[in-house]
Design a protein that fits this description.
The protein is an alpha/beta fold. Helices cover 63% and strands 10% of the residues.
Amino acid sequence: MLKRLAAYFHNYRRELAGSVLCVAMEAVFELVIPILMADIIDIGIPNRDKSYVLEKGAAMAGCALVALALGVLYAHLSARAGQGFGAELRKAEYRKLQGFSFSNMDHFSVPSLITRLTNDITILQHAACAGLRPMVRGPVMMVMALAMSITMSPQLALVFLVAMPVLAACLVLILRKLGPMYAGMQKALDEVNAIVEENLRAIRTVKAYVKGDSEYQKFSEGNEAYRQTAERSFHYAVLNLPCFQAVMYATILCILWLGGNYIHQGTMKVGVLTGFLSYVLQILNSLMMISNVFLLLSRSITSAQRIFEVLDEPAAIHDGPGSYTVHHGEIDFEDVSFKYQETAEEYVLSHINLHFGAGQTIGIIGGTGSAKSSLVQLIPRLYDVSEGVLKIDGHNVREYSLVHLRDAVGMVLQNNNLFSGTIRENLKWGDENATDEDLDWACRIACADEFLSRMPEGYDMDLGQGGVNVSGGQKQRLCIARAILKQPRVLIFDDSTSAVDTATEARIRHRLASELKNTTKIFITQRIRSIEDADQIVVLDNGTVSAAGTHDELMKSSEIYRDIYEFQQKGVLE
């Protein structure tokens, strides 16, 4: 895992190496100071040698200044390395998300992905910035200080043989408890983000139903669960400090008692004991740093595992060889079956056999849950067929490159999504090189020109987040215009005129028929009036094709179609 994480430092190797070198050298200069101090106490002061004391004092000050400069340089280099590491990891995860198919997205909740992309990476970034110093400094100081203390007094150094195993045992016990707790804490944070995301997305519904208080209560419960989980985790994490302090003070007391006896016996000088105690403090301080590193790594490992779950998610849809291009838009479903999960027992679509001619207008109708949307999402490979073959222009859709296939198929989905920015910026998702004349053409077909002409800023009007500054019908028409700008060979409308009045819908259909004659147009709708002039109408029932034909043919042969028609006609008459 550490090896994989290290790969994201590839653009910041110099800064990382420089940081490590600065910390190591800083530790060396700090470790020289106790030796100089011992010389002052044992040689300079007893001999009343002022020049010797000043010389050693100046050396101590010089070491301190060099250590300070190295610390400042380390802070600069580690900040660059840590922030760069976080940016590279965030880019890698976001790039992976962009390559996810719908089935991949079904494995993760949106709030969880946001947490993994933000909070989990921030934890790793913090570990890289704040953990690098103790990670390098701790072992260097411990090894060197231990070597110095053994050189000064091997007898007193034996105390460490008891202290270190005790400290290690405390650390192991704490870490074993913390690992699962940190994982639970991140899951609790996912739940909090899920509540916030859902509430903000549906804020109009919350206001309309006056559910602010109940939503606040729901958030409070989730937030309290996260607080309790985090509190339990940090309860064990903070045990590290008192455990180490208890062992540290016990060690110092033992050394003072033993050292005092040695001084009393004349086998040790006061300066040696003073210097030894300085090294003891540095050893114990380094052990404390190492233990904090382990605590930091314990939480970081949990976050890294969550990030690698996203990075290691196998692509459900693989890019095709790109051997062919879509020229006409002829579509064939040959015994196609589909289910969302391989382990699912039942198919959503079963044994679909259909032929859509190039340039035809196709209508798809059926009851709720009849898998109308699932059928058309197979065409641009938002999902892959489970069985059978789906062909466009006589070639399996798997043989087209994903970029070309999805560029050749325009979709106006059931949920109309606009993005923050101007109308022009949103429309140019269809064609980034589109001129104002192209925008006018697409908006005229989609009947969006009817309301754009009343907007003072026109195409430069800011839509706000998610298109909040336009109505539902206006949003639908802008989404239709955006798809038309692609000039695709296949154009799919998934109930995308539900918020538009029937007169406007009729004008859109008429203009589509006259302006996009060579484009295969597929309409999913609940209104028979919207598709009664279609070249072919497909009636779906529970994931199977119940009937297919023209309006007149279906009125004679399909009981389901006839019932829908008569019910809607009755509603019109009433």
